[in-house]
Specification:
The chain has about 260 residues and is mainly beta. The strands form four sheets. Strands 1, 10, 11, 14, 15, 16, 17 and 18 form an eight-stranded antiparallel sheet that branches. Strand 17 and strand 18 form a beta hairpin. It starts with a strand and ends with a strand.
């Protein structure tokens, strides 16, 4: 199993960062992306053209690029590239720079990682049409770009008691006479993870994640970076529990609930 990871600082949301797009649908400007609400997306115009979304920021080491609540062209591709200043674009994450698009994508989230990081001042996302173009729009709910200060992979592996809990908050009421009413709501996923032994430095970083994001600001947490259904955009449900084991070793446990 691939390692658990935390992505917890979104460069896109920094005041000095700017965003733009090739086209915008009415009421869905690119600036919607400077918001942590996944339900407030940038949306392109509906057409048969390729589309791009771009984020500019001060120079830094970028380690992950994620798209929350994404929609691409049916049969098309989505690619992430980076550059410094006006230089040439390079594929992010090595290889082709293409996101893996799975169906279904229950967590509505795709991620590319670069553990070593790449120096960049710009990330460009390109939505490419299939060979036979379709008339559609594309969109991004939250573009989550992490630098080296907001990306963390604990040195220890998750314990085997990690959990995945699907949640349906819909309301259903039934009466004796047979009447039945239902209020359908978005399904979510809750992930739990624990580390039996962590070095003190790792615990300090995990508590830094809590100190900055708390139970309100979403992070991206993955139990296994190679499995999308175990990667969610959500919030820490309550203050994580940590216990002393021995010396500078600690046990740590947390629950992350997907943001609707």
């Amino acid at each position: 199993m691939a390692s658990a990871r935390f992505i917890w600082k979104n460069v896109t949301l920094e005041a000095a960062s700017t965003v733009s797009a090739s086209t915008e649908a009415t009421g869905y400007p690119a600036t919607n992306a400077k918001n942590s609400k996944r339900g407030l997306p940038w949306r392109s115009a509906t057409s048969t053209a390729n589309q791009t979304f771009t984020a500019l920021f001060s120079s830094r080491l970028v380690t992950a690029v994620a798209l929350v609540n994404w929609k691409g062209h049916t049969g098309g591709t989505i690619k992430a590239e980076y550059r410094v200043g006006a230089g040439a674009y390079s594929n992010f994450g090595g290889g082709t720079g293409l996101f893996t698009l799975t169906s279904p994508n229950r967590t509505r989230l795709i991620v590319l990682y670069s553990a070593a990081g790449v120096t960049a001042t710009e990330i460009r996302i390109t939505f490419t049409q299939p060979g036979s173009p379709v008339t559609e729009y594309v969109e991004i709910g939250v573009p989550f770009i992490a630098d080296s200060t907001g990306y963390f992979e604990p040195t220890a592996k998750l314990s085997n008691d990690r959990g995945i809990q699907p949640v349906d908050p819909s309301l259903v009421r039934a009466a004796v006479g047979g009447q039945r009413q239902a209020w359908k709501k978005q399904k979510t996923i809750v992930l739990t993870g624990s580390w039996i032994i962590l070095p003190r430095a790792d615990l300090d970083t995990l508590m830094q994640v809590w100190d900055q994001n708390g139970a309100t600001d979403p992070i991206i947490f993955t139990q296994a970076s190679d499995t999308l259904d175990q990667t969610i955009y959500g919030t820490l449900v309550a203050r994580p529990t940590h216990k002393h084991v021995a010396g500078n070793q600690w046990a740590w446990q947390a629950t992350i609930e997907e943001a609707a």
